[in-house]
Amino acid sequence: MFINKTSDGKNNICGKQVARLRKRMTPKVSQRALAEMLQVAGLDIDKNAIQRMESGKRFITDIELKALAKVLNVTYAELLD
Length: 81
Hints:
Elements: H1 15-24, H2 31-40, H3 47-55, H4 62-72, H5 76-80
């Protein structure tokens, strides 16, 4: 049987990377600010969705992954590794 969760029970594999990259931005970017940056990039998302992504409680779609990579200025591979 296929289980679409990580070995530690998370719903995504890049949430920790998103949090790490967000906190490393200069100046440091809040979850709300990241949501606003993603909204400007055309993604309908709010602060609560960012919090759930980073904690691994929310699946991340390929559309969201693309927008996150663009806003965080990283490659898809950097988010997924």
